[in-house]
Amino acid sequence: MVQAIDLPRNESGIATVTGVLKQQFGDRFQTSAAVREQHGHTTTWIQNQMPDGVVFARSTQEVSDIVKVCAAHKVPVIAFGTGTSLEGHVNAPAGGISIDLTQMNKILTVHSEDLDCVIQPGVTREDLNTHLRDQGLFFPIDPGANASLGGMAATRASGTNAVRYGTMKDNVLALEAVMADGRIIRTAQRAKKSSAGYDLTRLLIGSEGTLGIITEITLKLQGIPEAISSARCSFPSVDAACQTVMQVIQFGIPVARIELLDALQVKACNAYSGLDLPETPLLLLEFHGSDAGVVEQAETFGAIADEFGGTGYTATTSTEERNALWKARHNAYWASLGLRPGAKGISTDVCVPISRLAEIVSAAQERLAELGFMAPIVGHVGDGNFHSLLLVDEDSAEEMEKAQSYVSWLAEMAISMDGTCTGEHGIGQGKMPYLVKELGEATEVMVAIKRALDPDNILNPGKVVTV
Amino acid sequence: MVQAIDLPRNESGIATVTGVLKQQFGDRFQTSAAVREQHGHTTTWIQNQMPDGVVFARSTQEVSDIVKVCAAHKVPVIAFGTGTSLEGHVNAPAGGISIDLTQMNKILTVHSEDLDCVIQPGVTREDLNTHLRDQGLFFPIDPGANASLGGMAATRASGTNAVRYGTMKDNVLALEAVMADGRIIRTAQRAKKSSAGYDLTRLLIGSEGTLGIITEITLKLQGIPEAISSARCSFPSVDAACQTVMQVIQFGIPVARIELLDALQVKACNAYSGLDLPETPLLLLEFHGSDAGVVEQAETFGAIADEFGGTGYTATTSTEERNALWKARHNAYWASLGLRPGAKGISTDVCVPISRLAEIVSAAQERLAELGFMAPIVGHVGDGNFHSLLLVDEDSAEEMEKAQSYVSWLAEMAISMDGTCTGEHGIGQGKMPYLVKELGEATEVMVAIKRALDPDNILNPGKVVTV
C-alpha cells in the first residue's frame, strides 16, 4: 500500500456541511465507516482516504444543491461512479463529501435516427448496451470494469475498441455539468460537429471531477455491424506480434479490436478460463463490417501475420466462440491474480507511438524479469497502449519499492519515446509527478484553468494538478 | 458590408510596440495600408478592421518574442494564416499586431510508420497533401479554401470528408502554442491516445487565437485507400435527398463524402464547370476502402437511393471522372457567385441532428424564396451541416438587413432543433450573439477561461466571447 498525502482539512466547514446534508438528505446521506471507506480509494495500491460523508444524489438539481452547500463552506466534493478508477481518483485527501451518482442511472432518451442518446452519469456501459441491443445499436467504449459512463467520461477512458472507435473524447457529443459554484451548464448541443466556442466538452472529459461534476451525457452510438468476426493468432515473440500490429495499422485494416497477451498472460487465461491456447504471445482480433468485408479483413490480416511467423491463425463468425474468447480477455485481470494468490495487482498504463511499441514492450519484459516480478502484459496494441500487471505482496516494503521504481522507470521510458504515462487510466493521485514530466509548462496552464473554474479548490482536490 | 464594433485602442502601447517590432524585424514588419488591409477581414460581409502592423514570423521563438513585446505593452496580437475565415476572425477591432504565419510553412517530420506528421502552422492543406502523396498518405480535412493548417486548427475546421474522418479536433494529436505571456507550451505527446490531464489540445482547437497562438501541429494521417470510388445521384426533392442521407448514416455505410447540392447550386455548377447534370437536388458521394469494399458500399447506397426516388445514379472508380466531379463541387462557391455577377456571397453554417436535416433545409429554401434571395445550398449533409450562400448587393441596405434577418432566423431555428449556429466556420465576430443563445451560461465558463489565460485580453480581442 502506498501512502497518500493528506491535505489540510477544513474541520468546521466539514462539520457544518455534514449537518446540513444530514438534514436535507436523511438516509441518503451516510457517514458510517463502511460506506465512507467504500467511497475512498479501494482499487490497487493507493491508501484509502475516506470522505467524511457520502450523499446519494438523484438529480442534477440535487448535485447542484450539494455543491452549493460545500462551496459556501469551502468543503471538498468528490464525484463517485463505480469506484473502479485505478490511480486514487476518488480519494478524499482533505476529507469532504463524496457524491455517489449510482442512483442517477436513467437512460433519458435514445435518438436512434441520430445515433445518439442522452443518459445520466450513473448508467454503466453494460446497462447501456443491454438497453440498446434491441434497437440494433451499441456504445463501443469498454474499459475493463463495468464502469459508469460518468466516470468513463471523467477519466477519458477507452478500452479494446478504441483502435477503431476512439476513446470517450471521441464519443461524447455534449455534457451537462455542475461547476464549482453549483451552476449548471450544458457544453454543447446535439449536432454531430460544431465550431461554437471553446470545447468545454473535451475540457471536462478527462478532468477527473476537478473542474465540474458531470450530471448528464449525450453519447454517440454505433449501429451493430452486419457482421462481426473474431480471430486469434500466436506469435514466436512479442516483437513479432507487435510488428504485425504495426503493419495492420499502417495497412489501414479497420480492425475493431487488436489485443496482445504475452505468454504469461496466455498461461494465466488458460488456467482461469479453461482454455488450451499455445502459451506464446497472442493477438486477439475482432473485425466489424459487412459479411464480405469482415472476411476480407480477416484474410488480409492472415497474410500479414504469416509474414511475421504467426501460427494457429483462426477466424470465426460464431458468436459463441467469439464470446468465449473475449470473455477470457476481459477476465485477464482476474486470471492474472490467480498466478499469485493473495497478491495485489498494480497496473501500468503507458502508451507510445506504435513504431516504438515492440521496443518498449520487450524492454518492459526484461526489466520485470530483472526485478523478479510476475507481471503479465496485455495491450490495446493498435493504439500503442499496454498494461503490465505487477503481482505484488503489498505488505512487503521491498516489493512495493521495486514496483514503484518499475512504474516510474516505465513512465519515463514512454515519455522519452514521445508517449504518455497514461493511455486511459488517468492521473488521479498516482500519476501527478509524471504529468509534470510529460507536459512541463503546460501543466501550469492546467493549474490556471483549475484556479479560474474552482478558485477554492473544492472539486476533487489533490488530483491531476497541484494547485 | 456589416459594420464591426471598434474597441478602445491603446495608442501609446501600439506606438511603442510598432517601434520595437520595426527595429527587430526590419522589412518583415510591414505597416503599409495595403498589407494591413489585406490582414484585416477581407472575406464575406464584415467590415475590414486593419491591424496597425503585420509581422511575418519565421519561428516559434519569434512568435514568443512578438507576443512578449505586445504583452508588456498590452497591445492586441492576431494570428493570421491565409485569411480565409468567414466571420471576422482576423479583424483588429482594437488595432494591434497581426502575426502572419505563412512563412512558418515547413513540414518538419513525417512519421509514416506512426501515421502522423509534425508541421508548422503556415503549411496549407494542399501543400501537405502534395508532400504526402509519394508516401501513400493523406490528410483528410478539406475546408473550401486552401487554408493553413494552423488556421484550420484554430477554427476547428472540417469539410467534405468529416462524415468519415471527423473534424480538426479528431485529427490533431498535439499542439505547440505561444500563450498570452509569450510562454511556449506543448499540449500533448505523440501517442495516439492519452488520459494525461486536461485536454489543452482540444481547448486550443476552435479557440480562434484567443487563448494561444498555434506554432506547431502534430497531425494524424491516413493511408490513401486501396480503392476510391465516387458517385452521383439526382433526387426529385431536397427532402428525398436528405431522407437518403439519413438512411445511409443510420445504415452505417462508411461514406467518405456525402454532399448535397440543391437545384440552384447544380444549375450554377453546370454553368461554371461546363457540366450537364440534371438540375434537381443532387448527392455527390465518395467511397474509400478495398476494391471489393467500395463496390459493395456503392451498391448499398444505390439500393437506398432507389427507395427515395434517386435517378441517374452512377458510380465510377475513374480518377479523371472523380476529379472533375469534385472539382465542380469545390468550385461551388465561385459557381454560385456567377449566378449574380458583382454580388457578395454570405454563407450560413448551421448544423443539426441529422433527423432534422430535411426539415431545416426545406424551411431554409422556403424562407429564402419568401425573402427573394438567390441562395444556392450546399451541404456536408452526412453531418447535418449545410451552407446557404446568399448572393447580395452589399451596397443595398435593404438586402443586407434581410440577409442578416435570415442568418439570425436560421441560427435560431438550428439552435431550437438542438443544433449549432456554426458547424465549421467558427464564431469570430459574426456569431458571438448566437453563441450565447446556443450555450447560455457555458459562455461564462469560456469567459473565465479566457480571463485566466489572457488576463489583459491581448489575444485576438473581440472574438468568440465578450470579456
Structural notes for this entry:
- Two copies of one chain form a homodimer.
- By secondary structure, chain A is α+β, with helices and mostly antiparallel strands.
- Chain A has four domains: 11-102, Uridine Diphospho-n-acetylenolpyruvylglucosamine Reductase, domain 2 (2-Layer Sandwich), CATH 3.30.43; 107-223, Uridine Diphospho-n-acetylenolpyruvylglucosamine Reductase, domain 3 (2-Layer Sandwich); 227-335, 2-Layer Sandwich (Alpha-Beta Plaits); 340-427, Alpha-Beta Plaits (2-Layer Sandwich).
- Helix content of chain A is 38%, strand content 19%.
- Chain A is built from 17 helices and 18 strands.
- Chain A has helices at 11-25, 33-39, 60-72, 125-132, 149-154, 162-165, 168-171, 200-204, 238-251, 263-273, 291-307, 319-330, 332-337, 357-371, 397-416, 432-439, 442-453; strands at residues 29-30, 53-56, 77-80, 97-100, 107-111, 116-119, 137-138, 172-178, 184-186, 213-220, 222-223, 227-234, 257-261, 282-289, 311-316, 344-347, 377-380, 385-392.
- In chain A, the strands form four sheets. In chain A, strands 15-12-14-13-17-18-16 form a seven-stranded antiparallel β-sheet, sandwiched between helices. In chain A, strands 5-6-10-8-9 form a five-stranded antiparallel β-sheet.
- In chain A, strand 5 and strand 6 form a beta hairpin.
- The longest helix of chain A is centred in the last third of the chain and has 20 residues, at 397-416.
- The interface between A and B is large, with 96 and 96 residues.
